[in-house]
């Protein structure tokens, strides 16, 4: 069989708003965010026109809500018209955000655009009167599709196709690739909180159908669940919140004559989310080595960290510029393709800054208004960068410049509090009175491999029991449950972070300057 090429995309969410972004944006950045999902769609169309695949497969959630904006509907229809005019077939499966019961299903589509219905349909793609591939698909009938739709698929021996303008049954050659298009949740797939809620299925359900490639949608994290057969989520075409960081786009798929499948990820998103981590210690080491860490005058005389928030501001900006430069280089190079294949640039980057490590700046950062002031300075600086940069928020994971192991061994109230915290983590309690507090910034000899100044790793099972009793009155009351959610929904990471914060507050309140 000759090689068969298609583009696999999903979760366009046209006209969706970005989550967690404040409204005080510059007009330039606001415009780029407003256009981002449409720009990603336009880039997807341009990619198809440049690569000229046999088909574009879209696996659900083209729109962000059931009735889709008029702007989104027109953009989708016009893009499809450009593709079909160029000879590219388009196949669309509806998902939970745009099910068949929605108004978007009533759009008038150009010829050679196939929108799957509530039952599995099979369509042949032909060349010179021969079937070169079969595309199977099904759409969500409602926004609460709970059926296992994967079990309705099966490999076809014959399929209807168009020959000389007439629809007729055609034999499918054994080597012709057969592809399933489905918006679904496969098991407990990484990147989802609603496992089992929307068209749930298992890998075994998918492989039992005998299809060669599963073009899936619904999970926004790009991932290949297995090969032979390929089970692929391309991810969303544009990340919409901080948990959708990194490149977003689609897959260009080639099924070679020998049946081998080649995947090429192509970035499309004009706006990229990034997480940058910056240590407050000298030389970016969190103060772990107790040395000056270099010749930076801002760190002079501060063996365990930067001297000022201004110095930290510069360090964060450098990290942001490095991340943005990496985005630009990655988008410019892309994945090698045919001559003339477009390379799409990143127009703006939205950052979360995580500050970690141990040093004197921890105390300054904890003062009221300090983080807010730093955030404002970073936003002002980011507005002049190219591409545009905006810090969404700053997450503080820093620790005071003290030896926590030594503090746990003190025979006083602070030592007792920290030993209780260690016990809550399921760790052996260190005996009291062995060492005096020694804020030298050096790790205790009993734990040479532990990051200095950081709390020991919590045992999730041990932490869950005491946390339930302490947090239940706050989280499980009427007002707490409304704003915080139930206490049993807290992850082990959430519990560990709460305990870390409690330790820090106790250190601040019980340790004299």
Automatic annotation (TrEMBL):
<dbReference type="Pfam" id="PF00149">
    <property type="entry name" value="Metallophos"/>
</dbReference>
<keyword id="KW-0378">Hydrolase</keyword>
<feature type="domain" description="Calcineurin-like phosphoesterase">
    <location>
        <begin position="4"/>
        <end position="221"/>
    </location>
</feature>
<dbReference type="InterPro" id="IPR041796">
    <property type="entry name" value="Mre11_N"/>
</dbReference>
<keyword id="KW-0540">Nuclease</keyword>
<feature type="compositionally biased region" description="Gly residues">
    <location>
        <begin position="284"/>
        <end position="293"/>
    </location>
</feature>
<dbReference type="InterPro" id="IPR029052">
    <property type="entry name" value="Metallo-depent_PP-like"/>
</dbReference>
<keyword id="KW-0269">Exonuclease</keyword>
<protein>
    <submittedName>
        <fullName>DNA repair exonuclease</fullName>
    </submittedName>
</protein>
<dbReference type="InterPro" id="IPR050535">
    <property type="entry name" value="DNA_Repair-Maintenance_Comp"/>
</dbReference>
<dbReference type="InterPro" id="IPR004843">
    <property type="entry name" value="Calcineurin-like_PHP"/>
</dbReference>
<feature type="region of interest" description="Disordered">
    <location>
        <begin position="425"/>
        <end position="460"/>
    </location>
</feature>
<dbReference type="GO" id="GO:0004527">
    <property type="term" value="F:exonuclease activity"/>
</dbReference>
<feature type="region of interest" description="Disordered">
    <location>
        <begin position="284"/>
        <end position="306"/>
    </location>
</feature>
